[in-house]
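WARN retry 2 of 3 for item q-0093 after timeout on previous attempt; input resubmitted unchanged.
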Amino acid sequence: MRNTVLSFVQFQSEMMNVSANVTKATDFIKEASQQKADLVVFPELFTTGYNPEIIGDRYYDLAEDAKGPTVKALSDAAAKYNVNVVAPIAYRLNVPGVIYNSAIVIDRKGQFVGAYHKTHLWAQERLYFREGTELPVFKLDFGTLGVMICYDGGFPEVTRSLALQGAELILCPSAFPIQDKDLWDIYFRSRSLENACFVGGINRVGHEADRHMFGNNQLYNPRGQQLLYGKMDKEEMQVVEIDLDDVKNYRKQVPFLKDRRPDIYRY
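OK item q-0093 returned
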């Protein structure tokens, strides 16, 4: 058995108050550690807030790179409390004027493992962020992790690509709006069954102008069975234990990946 304890945070952000949001995040990391979590995951753009209509060009000022104060603070907390962290932020590379809607991955020693840059941008995100071009997986001490962000969850190609690279657990930090709750209830169950792996969504809570984000974190096992269904409209952290050996076992029972026919698939 490879038991792994996951901690998902339905985070309510203070708009454009990065320091306050990071301070609160470190409190959640401490709490997750006290509950023996191996991994704690925050929602999309939780350090800045999400709504492009409100933040606009301020994204460029708020974006940070891997050496910035946000990554340092979260890395220090990860090391202090001995827990891996997935933290979605506005991320800056070494190209002037280019930022990404990203999720950084930090291991329990406080080391920066890497970043995923959202590959499918939604609506006005395109005005500020550049699309990512890679779908990496991250090897952590408990297993192999894949990350996607919000709208990415609607594209089966994303999770399939991650699963074929060995991802056993695929997580989708999000800022999902209430009017699309029906999609939220479909995405992760479908993606888990198709790829016979654990798939979960981690959603913001709160209102940003007319954008109502409702929380309701979810997690499904490799057979599409629901393991977590978080509360609506409540900032909270859920902790759930999984056995990553279930991925190998379920892939033997229903061999979707093995029985693929890429020789006949055409676009």
